[in-house]
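Re-running the complex after MR caught last week's input typo. The corrected sequence lines follow. Everything else is unchanged.
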Amino acid sequence: MREERLPADWRKLLWVPTGVALVIGLVGFVDRLANGHEGAAYGSYVMWGLWVAMYLFFAGLATGCFFVASADYVFEIRAFRGFGRLCLVPSAAAMLAGLLHIWLDLGHLERIWRVYLQPNFISPMTQVVWLYTAFGLLLAVISWLAFKDVWRPLLGRPYTAEEAQADRRLIKALSILGLLVAFAVSSGVGGLLGIQASKTYWHVGLFPVQFVFFALASGVALMLIVAAFFYRPAEDRGRRQRILVILAQATLALALLKAFFLFADYVQSIYGGEPANVEAIRTVVLGPYPLAFWGLQIFLGIVVPVVILLHPRLSKDGPWLGVAGLLTLIGFVAARLIIVIPAQVVPELEGLRTAFVDERLTFEYFPSLWEWAVTVGIGGLAVALFLLAYQFLLLAPAPAAVPPAPAAGTVPKAPVPAER
Amino acid sequence: MRALAAKASPGRRQFLKAAALGAPALAAGAWVRGLSPPAEAGSTTAAPPVPSLPALEAGTGNVLLRMQAELRRALAKPVAERKWTMVIDLRKCVGCSACTVACIAENNLPPGVVYRPVLEEEIGEYPNVTRRFTPRPCQQCDEPPCVPVCPVGATWTQEDGVVVIDYIKCIGCRYCMAACPYSARYFDFGEYYTDGTPQRQPYEESPSPEYGRSWRRTGPYSSPVGNVRKCQFCLHRINIGMLPACVTTCIGQATFFGDRNDPDSLVNELLASGRAIRLKEELGTKPKVYYLV
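Corrected-run output:
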């Protein structure tokens, strides 16, 4: 396996598209605050659009990355030792991106506090919001502990090995709790759609189960990208190879599982013959945007990554594995749109399509430039946060992280951070 | 006026007499409607006082008068003992959409918000062809799928059976819209019909009287902009003894309204005809809007 990493200049180069995305997003964000939802392409029949799909995508990424972190913190798999905190950064960035999307999607974003102070716990949405908040808090505490070796020396206080061990135990306990919450959140997001009996395309019994695997699959794919382009353990270069192999094999297995879920859902629905469900699937497969399904979700998102991951040479090449992870994520973006939109483009009642002519009362949807702008901006923000955290936490200068030499009789100090 | 009445023919005299009696009633109704204190959004028990109006001559064969008398009879009961029900006779509906327009005017609805569209279907092929018109207000379900999914409890079923929304509480997540199997909920995007014309017309900026309050849309953060909205059987009219706007406007008298708990009500008579169906009965939502087929 080649030992290639993204050179420092390349990382700097990443700031160019990230900066452009942030500027575009800022325009969309300001417009959202000033004019509400006027620029949206969704309406009253297709009521959830790109932002809800992206919320599902980023929420899956956040919990998925945490699942990978648990290989280090909970299951203590030797190959993943030290890799956990590299997972925490994209997890937090994705969580923020997901929350921003769903927050901006609210008609009254200033009333979000009501979900906390006046909650209706019967609602799956309330359950997901509360679980998501718990997940975010756990993630913050775990990150605070996991990066203690970086920030403590900055305060001029040494970080001892004993403290590190105690924190490690605490991180493990919190991560077990976090794992359960992450499982519940990712499952709950599936349930949020799945409970809607009148929309048979969503009313899939296995949705809460599938969404856990979708989250895991997207998290593994993202960590494959991170491992391929950003991970370089200083003390054990062989670890990177082992992690790449494990993540690549997991991506392959989960891609096949994802394809199986898709096949089972669609074939069962078509055989079942429920008209609205069949119509929704027809829209996906043959409808106005076949490129999203066949081109992005199936070909780029599953077929190409599977070919790369099965290829004798490419499957051992770090950058190619990163590309496979990236394509898998692109497929996931399309998949999330294909989960959210088609259920809404089939009228609940025959005749609604023509009952009243208004641009908000149509059963067609393609995101507006404004919606794309906000999403691009939020994506840029997530990447920017990752790059900043990578620069200042994971690539922290060695002298700052290394505690002073031990005096006689004191305990040994924590090791130098693993990621370099 | 007296001289005019003396010259008038008997028929005309009768009309003027009725008008003289009716004018104060109309004025009283308008006064009550205009000055009655706004009901607390979210209030389920407080029944506004029923105005003291002259007795209507029920039994004259006028369906509207009969329903209005029944409405006032129901208003005299405690709220929990009423069950507002709507019956729509599809054989009578001519698809004129007067109810749609009346509803928009009554509730001052913006673009994209239509509480009562009329669905049109063409059945059969020439020469055996017909058209069916199905007005679709909120079905006011007894088991509404939209209610339990609201994350902040901003929508619920009142004691009188009407499903309502608290515009101050609603966060605009639109989960209830996704859950409604009749697509009867709408999102207020804060738009105006006359935007893009030389001047936005003042009538569009006049407040909506829904739920007995005055809702003025002044920007993206002023409810009901950014809220989910829906038909509420014109509660602001019902509670002061007036029938819903769609009922009084129906040119074919195809829409009926009344108290299901009143055994003598017209809606109960109609529902006993054996012609009544409900939309998507199989979902178990138990709508309180019935269709006569």
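None of the earlier attempt is carried over here. Chain B touches chain A through 52 residues (CB under 8 Å). The CA atoms of residues 158 and 233 of chain B lie 12 Å apart.
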